[in-house]
Each structure stands twice: as C-alpha cells, then as structure tokens.
Amino acid sequence: MSTAPSAAPDGARVAAAMHTFPKTCGPATTVAQAWAAFERPKVHSLLVVDAGRLLAVVDRDDLAGAGPDGPAASLGTLDGRVARAGDDLASTWAAMAEAGRRRVAVVDGSGRLLGLLCLKRHGRGFCSDAGIRARIDERAAAPDGP
Prior knowledge:
Elements: E1 24-25, H1 31-38, E2 45-50, E3 53-59, E4 82-84, H2 89-99, E5 103-107, E6 113-118, H3 129-141
Parallel strand pairs: 1-2, 4-5
Antiparallel strand pairs: 2-3, 5-6
C-alpha cells in the first residue's frame, strides 16, 4: 500500500474521494450472515447501519472464534475505521496507510453513513462511484451474470 498520499490535492476533503453507495447490513446481521457476505471477493468490511447511522465496521478478523448466531455488530468497532466527510484527505490517507487499512467508512457529524473511502489495490487513488458502477455493469453484461 502506498504510504505517500502525494496524489491528494492540497486541501482536498474525504468527501471528494469517497464513493457514495457502499453496501451495508442491519444490526440484526448474525456472524454466520457476515461470513456469507465475506465470501464475495469485493467485500472487505461490513458497514452495520441502523436508520442511516453507522453502528460498527466489522472486518473478517473481528469474527474469529465467534458463534454463528451472535450479532456481528457487537464484534466490530468504529475506532480507526471511520473518517468524517470534512476531514483532510491527505491526512486521512496517511493514517490509513499507517494502519494498513484500505477502507474507512465516511460519516457526518452525527454518525450518519455518507460513503466509503476505498483505496484502490495499487494504492495510488480511491475507488469512485463511476468506476464501481462500470464494474457492476461489466459483471451484469458478462455471460454468466453477476
């Protein structure tokens, strides 16, 4: 992962680089359901939302050793996994690199989920709404479908 967010324009905010339609799950999502979601290759974190408010970000490692019927949300955290839309993009990118994270949820001041800041695999930029939509369209057009 890139540790130098040199591609972030001076003064850019997190909101300018986030994508705005991340997949979410509800607070009743069980550990078994979370494991099933993680079987999809593009799912790296689960954003647990209730009435628009982000409750937890759950990663695969959070689920280790948990029983299948328990709530996944209680195993996740917001600590280190969330940025505010108005945060400085370069600073957020640097913090992500330092922590080894490619994704952070983006919230407003009241904790409402606004999007996801998702660092591309090569580490030189962020996933965009247009890029994600294009991949969805490509998969839908493929002979075997999504």
